[in-house]
Amino acid sequence: MKEIYLDNSSTTKVCREAADKAYQMMTECYGNPSSLHTLGFAAEREMQQAREQIARSMSVRPEEITFTSGGTEADNIAVFGAASQKRKQGNRIVTTAIEHPAVLEPVRRLEQEGFEVVYLQPDGEGHIRPEQIREAIDSRTILVSMMLVNNDVGTILPVEEAARAIARAKAPALLHVDAVQAYGKIPVRPQKLGADLVTVSAHKIHGPKGIGALYQAKTSHIPARTFGGGQEKNLRPGTESTPLIAAFGEAVRVLPELSAQREKIAALNRICRDGLGNIPGIVINSPEDALEYVLNFSTGSVRSETMLHFLASKGIYVSSGSACSKAKPSHVLAAMGLDSRRIDTAIRVSFSRENTEDDVRALLDALAEGMASLAKK
């Protein structure tokens, strides 16, 4: 049975180049990058090359990149660090109700500690309006945390408007952008976005799990929350995982040209949208202007888990939303105001450069079969 993997927003298959680099680092270039001998120097050099590769992809300086264990740790460092640094200048935090739990949970913890938190609510298509942002940010705002691309429905959030609103309000706020779902798909340029802190992760771009990075502008001096040997400029101490770091750099190096790749994915998305429109009962939840890599829809009659198992029996792998939600109903779809039937029957398809038109056709055929055999009469 052919495997058709359409759950790339959860994780991607590691590309051969990244896997080979990790193996090389574990078996040949295995020194501790802090060691003062040849093997240590070699490991440190590989790590620096990866840092430069990731920095170049974001048009920033290598010294502004800090390696972390992934997007979740980077988000936590950014949110808690920004609140700690700025708490004497204000008490307001602005975020959205559709952020990843790696942002929402730290923000809720800060709310429990006495910070005022504004959760911007999306419209029925998952959009956050610029005027909402302008109204929420005032002179007491110390942190704005907003994802660039939503992981459940693919909406692109107006991050640059947040930067303008911070400047307009003369707020002391740092702007943190969770770019995990955007990086490697659309350009992520912190300076163009006006972002002080940006989170990215390797396993969404055909790199390994367990490694991510935080861009930190030189003007944002967030304090450390963990302490140890002083690695990563003391912001994230501990012996660096050079196999994962080097593999991350390699995954970035072999990324295809973004605009051409986006055109290919857009074509797959359109085929899928058109095909879904021909299956009675299915309603698409992702708006037309969502990033093409993500397509969320509801069957209306077959629970998500049931349809997931049916598709998996055909060798087709999709999801019901963020893998971090552990199969809980999507808080994103709930925030969009969708009814319980649409939420409980939601399916997320997410594409990568390895997917083909044949994959989409197979999905559509299996969905039609599943609807015919599983839908409640």
From TrEMBL:
SUPFAM superfamilies, per the entry:
PLP-dependent transferases (SSF53383)
Similarity comment text for this entry:
Belongs to the class-V pyridoxal-phosphate-dependent aminotransferase family. NifS/IscS subfamily.
Q: Which cofactor does it need?
A: pyridoxal 5'-phosphate
Keywords attached to this Swiss-Prot or TrEMBL record, sorted alphabetically, are: Iron, Iron-sulfur, Metal-binding, Pyridoxal phosphate
Q: Does the keyword Metal-binding apply?
A: yes
The Aminotransferase class V domain, residue ranges = 4-363
Identification of the protein by name: Cysteine desulfurase
Q: Which InterPro entries match?
A: Aminotrans_V_dom, Cysteine_dSase, PyrdxlP-dep_Trfase, PyrdxlP-dep_Trfase_major, PyrdxlP-dep_Trfase_small
Example GO molecular function? iron-sulfur cluster binding
Give the matching PANTHER family. Answer: CYSTEINE DESULFURASE ISCS 2-RELATED (PTHR11601:SF50), CYSTEINE DESULFURYLASE FAMILY MEMBER (PTHR11601)
Q: Which Pfam families match?
A: Aminotran_5
Is Cell inner membrane among this UniProt entry's keywords?
no
Q: Which organism is it from?
A: Candidatus Gallacutalibacter pullicola
